[in-house]
Amino acid sequence: xxxxxxRALRSELADFxxxxxxxxxxxxxxxxxxxxxxxxxxxxxxxxxxxxxxxVCLEKGEVVLQGSNLNIxxxxxxxxxIDGQLKGVEFHD
Amino acid sequence: MLILHLWYYLTxxxxxxxxxxxxxxxxxxxxxxxxYLWGIARDDQGILLSMGASNFRLLRPIARSTRCRVRILQKxxxxxxxxxxxxxxxxxxxxxLFFTTLYGLGYFIWSIEVSGISEPIQTKKILAEIYNRGVxxxxxxxxIDLDELSRQIILNNxxxxxxxxxxxxTLLMIHLVPKQTPPLVGMPxxxxxxxxxxxxxxxxxxxxxxxxxxQAVAKGEIxxxxxxxxxxxxxxxxxxxxxxxxxxxxxxxxxxxxRRTGNSHQIVSxxxxxxxxxxxxxxxxxxxxxxxxxxxxxxxxxxxITLPVExxxxxYHEVVETVRPxxxxxAEKRARAAAVARIKAQLSPExxxxxxxxxxxxxxxxxxxxxxxVLEVLENxxxxxxxxxEVTDGERGQGFEKKDGGQTKGTEQ
Lengths: 93, 413
What we know:
The structure holds 2 protein chains of 2 kinds.
Chain A: H1 2-17, H2 21-24, E1 29-33, E2 37-41, E3 46-49, E4 53-57, E5 62-75, E6 79-92
Antiparallel strand pairs in A: 1-2, 2-6, 3-4, 4-5, 5-6
Chain B: H1 2-11, E1 13-19, H2 23-32, E2 37-42, E3 47-52, H3 59-66, E4 69-76, H4 78-86, H5 89-105, E5 111-115, H6 120-132, H7 146-156, E6 160-168, E7 171-178, E8 189-193, E9 197-206, E10 208-209, E11 216-217, E12 222-225, E13 227-228, E14 231-232, E15 236-243, E16 246-252, E17 254-272, E18 275-280, E19 290-302, E20 305-325, H8 328-344, E21 352-361, E22 368-380, E23 382-386, E24 400-402, E25 408-410
Parallel strand pairs in B: 5-7
Antiparallel strand pairs in B: 1-3, 1-4, 2-3, 6-7, 8-12, 8-23, 9-11, 9-15, 10-12, 13-14, 15-22, 16-22, 17-18, 17-20, 19-20, 21-22, 24-25
């Protein structure tokens, strides 16, 4: 419960001071380049990698990418770059 | 990201195939150890990925814990390339030798080009001159002082106005501009008759007139003497005279007209030195009358060095010849025009044609028309002729060289 409250406080703090939420709240920053490329910053690793589906672990939950010919162009601790034909991006808890 | 890839190219990287069940876990462990991965793709056996070569030794515990098998597919980057070259030292040596030779050969002159003069004799003379000064093919470029060289050329050849010497790589370019020598004025000369005629008008500017209006003069006769009060001067003036130049003109009574039918025959052949090999097309031309067109293609090897192999494309166009008779008035007209053109080629542009007489002549052969045309022309017939001041008149001057068209050009003795 304490963690939940701290999180809510930080969200309010970010709103109040107009600070970027992705830094304060550890949110992933996801950038889409059309349907060809997707960049996730601040991820927590791969869960599943198939050419048609990639699941990436986030701080809270996971993101599921649907598509075809999906390749991971590069992966490092900070970011992951996915290229291919993207069809869908879903968030799961 | 480019800088990172460049870094991995310089330090070397490996392309791996990882097979197993927990491949995602393998990737996650890699990145948590700080291993940068790129180019991850799935294939039917597992995943392919690239990583820096120095990180490869970190993989062993990861692979063991995730029970994955790692196989190296390719080793890429500069260190691996150099490693491969180490086994082929002669190749490296050859490469090095090639570039040093190329660089070394750039220190020499390999060709000399002289431009600006049309006469090959003078070009040869200048080449011989600079050869004696050590400027020749194979000479070291640094030993040649270009300023000094151009100064020497211009000193040795007074008929040159300007010389530019420069290097274009291994080519020594010598550009020459010859002096435009003006016609000599002021040298004592007479004005003499260029051809015989009857003097119609005489205007003396400098000198003493020797002839009067209506007087017949012979070729070479002095018209205006180049003396003034006993002193030699350059005679100047205009002497217009009536002259009667004549010429013959011929015209055949029939002409053959050649017209292309549109049919053509092409032969492609290859010439190597003396030998000629036909590549395409039959050797004999299937037409009774034809016109040939030859197109020669050379392979330019380097600069103006061509390979001694030429491709020759010869196209033969079929023609039909039709013989057309020319009516007599038409033939006479053409013969006359030819004669007049022949006369006018010898006259100066300001000559005035006063009358024309056309006389039919017996032709040399049957199907021909011949005419003789005589023109009455008023033209300036005065022509300067130099003379030695000591020598009395009538003697031919030595210091002048005659050129066609009545102009004189001086040369040094």
